From TrEMBL:
Record protein name field: Aconitate hydratase
Enzyme class: lyase
Domain MmgE/PrpD C-terminal, chain residue ranges per copy: 284-468
Enzyme Commission identifier(s): 4.2.1.3, 4.2.1.79
Amino acid sequence: MKTHLVRTHRSVEEFPKEDHLAWKIAEVATDSVEVTDATSDMIVNRIIDNAAVAAASLVRRPVVNARAQAQSHPYTPGSTVFGISGTFSPEWAAWANGVAVRELDFHDTFLAAEYSHPGDNIPPILAVAQHAGRDGKDLIRGLATGYEIQIDLVRAICLHEHKIDHVAHLGPSAAAGIGTLLGLGTETVYQAIGQALHLTTATRQSRKGEISSWKAYAPALAGKVAVEAVDRAMRGEGAPSPIWEGEDGVIAWLLGGPDKEYHVPLPGSGEAKRAILDSYTKEHSAEYQSQAPIDLARRMRARVGDLDQIASIVLHTSHHTHVVIGTGSGDPQKFDPTASRETLDHSVMYIFAVALQDGTWHHEHSYAPERAQRPDTIELWNKISTREDPEWTRRYHSTDPDEKAFGARAEITLKSGEVIVDELAVADAHPLGARPFARDQYVAKFRTLAEGVIEPSEQDRFLDAAQRTAELKAGELDQLTFTVSEDVLARAPKVAKGLF
């Protein structure tokens, strides 16, 4: 990996295009290096993972609305949309599938200086691959780039400390991945990256306070914007430049300011794109920093015994966990039993309470209003707080994979005065966890979430196609979706008519 110094440059400074971060990223995207077998295999796992969570969210209102918008834009050749037959304009297919994938917050993750769900790259890149008639190897190359660029930006550039949403790294990564997929030139990819970044910088209010369905829509919009940015760049349209380093650019005014320096690692020329191997998926449908606390609660419940005897619970954890999903956020909504699913998903206090009571976690039942409003749950929930521990913060930011951790130490104080303590650094499903996810686990997750949604024969067909992604020929990428019966679609709530 080569590390690039990125800082603001005044307009009067000499700053050649070839030194711009967007150009460096475009060079990575246009490097025709082969994808390693390990990376290719993991890409297949994540294609399966995305489809699994899309199946589970298929009849939820935000997904239904996004799908209806896409259905208003049929197109040939076009791209597929989860759950239905037909083809649609690729940017709208990317939009609909992006919402379906993100709605339950249940797919892959990478955490470093910033947060990310790099699987958000798959809907836009796959949609363009289908529309453009590319083959499976092209798709894998494009996805390897999308994952690489997003993860490398996440390693180096913190957005949330400046209250900028993490999808600002997704627009550029998806644009770069589409550039690789289509074999575009460096100049074209450079312009698309600049446009995509300029149009996807938004505040983090989408993940603060009373969290709405826009939490799922925001990354889908970034993917849609990336598709449109590539289209314009291919037609010869330009972008703000230099987008990160300009005097009025992203760093100067949205991030660390004109004196801030960032050190962004990117693969060197001829170096394989392996970043996807550093990411990890979720066993539980909850914000990633609550994955280990769920497993920890399940492990501790037998030692605690009678939960009514609990006086208080303190979760000692990282700064990120404390201020984003913990009591350090200052969000009273995180203790509101009538809060939205999206808000409960971002309350580690709620999540730990339910996991401690139930000994399990379910993507629907654990968030049901009747579950959140149980009096005994509310009582336990309000006994839980978080506290930042510098050691957990240090481990969160560690670059040593054996030391990097996203967990917590739980101190459960009983009314008797007894204190029960345990800790867990990484989730059981993490590559270094008790039960790491491999192909069998990804397939099992798909089967579980597809049950009652996708017919068994259609499940078999999809899984066979997904595991043969590298062998799929031009025109065969439409196999990387699934359809469901009209009876399943009829379970969806009635939604209002929009403009389309």
